Amino acid sequence: MPPVFAALRVTMPASGLRYPPLVLAVRHALLNRGVAIVPKGNVPTVVLVGETMTPIIASINNNGGASTYLLDYSATFSVQAPDGAVLIAPTIIRVQREYSFDALNVLAMAREQAYLERRMRAAAARQIIWRLISFKGPPPKAAAPKAVAPKPVVPKAAAPKSAPRAS
Questions:
Q1: Fewest CB atoms less than 10 Å from the CB: which of 24, 81, 132, 162?
Q2: Contact at 8 Å (CB) between 44 and 87?
Q3: Is residue 78 classed as helix, strand or coil in its secondary structure?
Q4: Is residue 52 part of a domain?
């Protein structure tokens, strides 16, 4: 982990929960990497912008009912420096998993979906950690162009006028 990320804050301002599951997953992954998690302070902040979980029907059975679902999970995050500068621009992490649906065992299917959601959140947290590990520093700021004094314009010497010719 780059030294700039030795201590971090993790927030998810858009969530109404005190401890959203994604925040807990990212904090756990950071702690496993030896990163200190601080509630306040002059440290960079991992801002978890939001997450979505969308079940998509992948296949249908003979009766026209869903038999396989594809869970599409996405999480958006960014990293801000203590002064508010963006260190990592908003980035979308996507994870997809497929599971079979059995209409005769709905309770088990709900448990399987919840299990997959936890696993997908943990996978997204690991991808966020890898983005932090690969951080090379903020992009260099463009230097202001140097002021160059204009060259003085020297008028060209006028050619001598010739006398009118007599005709």
A1: 162
A2: yes
A3: strand
A4: yes
Read off the pLDDT of each residue in 148-159 and give the average, rounded to a whole number: 61
Q: What is the pLDDT of residue 146?
A: 61
Can you say whether residue 34 is alpha, beta or left, with left for phi > 0 and alpha for psi between -120 and 50 degrees? Answer: left
Return the exposure string of 2-18: e unless at least 16 CB atoms fall within 10 Å of the residue's CB, then b: eebbeebbbebeeeeee
Query: Angle 106-133/21-32 helices, nearest 10 degrees?
Result: 50
**Does 11 score more than 70 pLDDT?**
yes
Phi/psi for 44 (5° steps) reads -60, 155
Angle at 76 (CA atoms; ends 58, 3), nearest 5 degrees? 130
Q: Choose between 16 and 116: higher pLDDT.
A: 116
Find the domain containing 104 and state its range: 3-133
Dist CA 45 CA 113 (whole Å): 31
pLDDT at 64: 81
Give the integer Cα–Cα distance in Å for 137 and 116: 34
Q: Which pTM was predicted? A: 0.74
